[in-house]
Specification:
The complex is a heterodimer of chains A (about 280) and B (about 300).
Chain A lengths: L21 H18 L1 H22 L10 H34 L2 H6 L7 H27 L8 H28 L3 H13 L18 H6 L2 H12 L7 H23 L7
Helix pairs in contact in A: 1-5, 2-3, 2-5, 3-5, 3-6, 3-7, 3-9, 5-6, 6-9, 6-10, 9-10
Chain B lengths: L7 E10 L2 E11 L3 E5 L6 H8 L7 E6 L2 E2 L4 H4 L3 E4 L11 H11 L4 H14 L15 H13 L5 E5 L7 H16 L3 E6 L2 H7 L2 E6 L2 E6 L1 H8 L3 E5 L5 E6 L4 H14 L4 E5 L3 H9 L9
Parallel strand pairs in B: 3-8, 3-9, 6-7, 7-8
Antiparallel strand pairs in B: 1-2, 1-4, 4-5, 9-10, 11-12, 11-13
Helix pairs in contact in B: 3-4, 3-5, 8-10
Classes of the chains: A mainly alpha (about 280), B alpha/beta (about 300).
The structure holds adenosine-5'-diphosphate and magnesium ion (MG).
């Protein structure tokens, strides 16, 4: 203890703790969440290994077999499949957010924060920052492996940045959704289960095979599900083609998801207490 | 300087979850100091702590802590209190020092002040040797100590401790009790919950007995014992066998009169006065034994 003198506990003149604002708590929680992810060796390994393995599988095993037009062959498929690999790996990386958020609820950590003098919702933003960092690494890994196994493009830097920007916006949207799922999940284990949904969603999109090669009953879903415009737009941009209206459809989906998830978080978060 | 504001002032406080009434019309006023809320599992202890620490807004009634309304004045109240919940809420992936540093900064300390004070607390709680180790390597007792240290980082006026020693071994338990006494010496008030009678008796000035959402008794350990019944006078023969037992109403006059009568009646038996144990008090007040019987 420091040498504070004994004082009556309800002395109105007693010093109070200052508390802290939005930016400081955001910084503190970002540092915390980044430390947590980088120290969790298993999840870091998966964040790097999963995109590497997916790239190798889709390039060397499937690449020769799936005809996506454009001259066919391995190189054409590589140029086709890269955005879908990023989104698949990102789905995995973002789903970790649900696990850490639900751990914070289950351990009572969130309870303690909510009795403290600062905007406690910044704890969720800290987890979001670290999810973006993990997925940025996964995205970089996909591009590095892509270049290493023969991906070449005539896209301008502006187009490449736009493609990456769209991908990051999608990752941000699903991270916010996973943060919400982490808040409402009964336990970290069940929060972990939600990750599987997003692991399968990209296979039912235009990501790995053209939609018109799918069974008729599946086509309407694959064509209109939100990942398809994101993937189509990112693919067109990174291959230096005109994406048409896809980027705007993609942005609309992402912002729509975020708006709904943030609104639900605003409803759930203040009432969430650990049992 | 005498205090004028009660530490905790509750009037007509009720809380329900669905149609389950968890707290029923509580009315209590406590001065600064150490107070224990004693009750069995499911009595509503955590719910009351959650209300007083601004986590949940009560459905009915008024609750003021340090003179501040737990809902209307929650922003100000949060600068004066700290909650240590039922389960240790420290970050397993961080070290002891990193936990203190993080929470200190969130309470508004500068980074250097947080680390300096964190170092003092680690020292005080005997955790200095493990300050750089990840909390996931800590024992249950060490985690609990760190958990309480985190609550103390910004020198709150009042700290809430929800079942601080549940699940700890006897040695860690005694060590924590010592720390809690030390807090009081420094002028920090403590509101703790416990299922253990001996814990309430050892720590608290005032004990509130909570049963099924109602405060069934309130007072010092001695007052509670008196409430339940007076001392019992026992008569043993030379080999220590209990030969006779006489109840009194607990007043000094009654005890001494009964003692004199018995001594005249049984000159060859040894006479002893026995106060009821806290377990008996609890059993009588709530109609059920607690796990606190083990001490
Ligand atoms: N958020 C909640 N929703 C529904 N029931 C609850 C909730 N919190 C507590 N309860 C119920 O209220 C009662 C009292 O719980 P609690 O305050 O945790 O008791 P204690 O801490 O004394 O064991 C229990 O029956 C518990 O199941
Ligand atoms: Mg409890």
């Amino acid at each position: 203890m420091t040498a504070t003198a004994t004082r009556p506990a309800t002395d109105p003149a007693a010093p109070v703790t200052a508390g802290t604002g939005f930016l400081t708590s955001l910084r503190v929680f970002s540092v915390r969440s980044l430390k947590k992810s980088f120290r969790d060796g298993e999840s870091m390994l998966m964040a790097i290994l999963l995109p590497v393995l997916l790239m190798l599988i889709f390039t060397f095993i499937m690449g020769g077999a799936i005809d996506v037009g454009g001259g066919g062959g391995r190189e054409a498929y590589l140029a086709y499949v890269m955005p879908a690999v990023v989104l698949t790996a990102a789905g995995f990386g973002a789903s970790y957010t649900a696990v850490v958020v639900s751990q914070d609820v289950a351990t009572g950590f969130m309870n303690r924060l909510r009795t403290m003098p600062f905007p406690s919702v910044t704890v969720l933003l800290g987890h979001t920052v670290s999810s973006m960092a993990r997925n940025l690494i996964a995205t970089a890994v996909v591009f590095l492996v892509g270049f290493a196994v023969g991906f070449r493009t005539e896209a301008t830097v502006g187009q490449l940045l736009a493609a990456v920007g769209l991908i990051l916006l999608w990752i941000l949207a699903i991270t916010v959704i996973f943060a919400l799922l982490g808040l409402v999940a009964g336990s970290p284990e069940s929060a972990n289960g939600y990750g599987f949904i997003l692991l399968f969603l990209p296979y039912v999109s235009s990501g790995f095979a053209p939609v018109d090669t799918m069974p008729g009953w599946l086509q309407p879903f694959a064509e209109h599900q939100p990942m398809t415009p994101v993937i189509d737009a990112a693919r067109a941009l990174m291959n230096g083609q005109d994406p048409g209206a896809d980027p705007w459809v993609a942005v609309a989906w992402c912002l729509g998801f975020m708006a709904i998830a943030i609104w639900l978080i605003a409803v759930v978060f203040p009432r969430k207490t650990a049992r | 300087m005498p205090y004028t504001t009660p530490l905790v002032d509750i009037d007509g406080l009720s809380q329900s979850f669905g149609d389950r009434r968890v707290l029923r019309d509580l009315r209590v006023s406590l001065p600064p100091g150490i107070h224990a809320l004693l009750g069995p599992n499911g009595a509503g202890k955590t719910t009351l702590i959650n209300i007083l620490s601004t986590l949940i807004r009560p459905d009915a009634g008024r609750a003021r802590v340090l003179g501040l309304d737990v809902h209307a004045d929650r922003a100000r109240l949060r600068r004066k209190i700290a909650l240590t919940g039922q389960y240790a809420a420290v970050d397993e992936a961080l070290s002891g020092m990193e936990n203190l540093d993080m929470m200190g900064q969130l309470f508004g300390l500068s980074r250097s002040a947080a680390r300096r004070r964190g170092g003092l607390l680690l020292d005080q709680f005997g955790l200095t040797a493990s300050k750089s180790a990840k909390v996931s390597t800590y024992s249950g007792g060490m985690r609990r100590k760190l958990d309480i240290a985190v609550s103390l980082i910004a020198e709150p006026e009042l700290i809430f401790l929800d079942e601080p020693t549940t699940g700890l071994d006897t040695r860690s338990r005694q060590a924590l009790w010592d720390e809690i006494h030390r807090l009081a010496d420094h002028g920090t008030s403590v509101f703790l919950t416990t299922q253990y009678l001996d814990e309430a008796e050892a720590l608290a000035e005032q004990i509130l007995v909570l049963d099924d959402g109602r405060i069934v008794a309130e007072g010092t350990a001695d007052e509670l014992k008196e409430l339940v019944g007076g001392a019992t006078i026992q008569l043993h023969d030379g080999s220590g066998h209990l030969r006779a037992e006489h109840a009194t109403d607990g007043s000094a006059a009654d005890v001494s009169r009964t003692l004199a009568e018995l001594a005249a009646q049984y000159p060859d038996l040894a006479v002893t006065v026995r106060k009821p144990s806290m377990d008996e008090v609890f059993l009588q007040l709530t109609g059920q034994p607690t796990e606190g019987a083990a001490s």
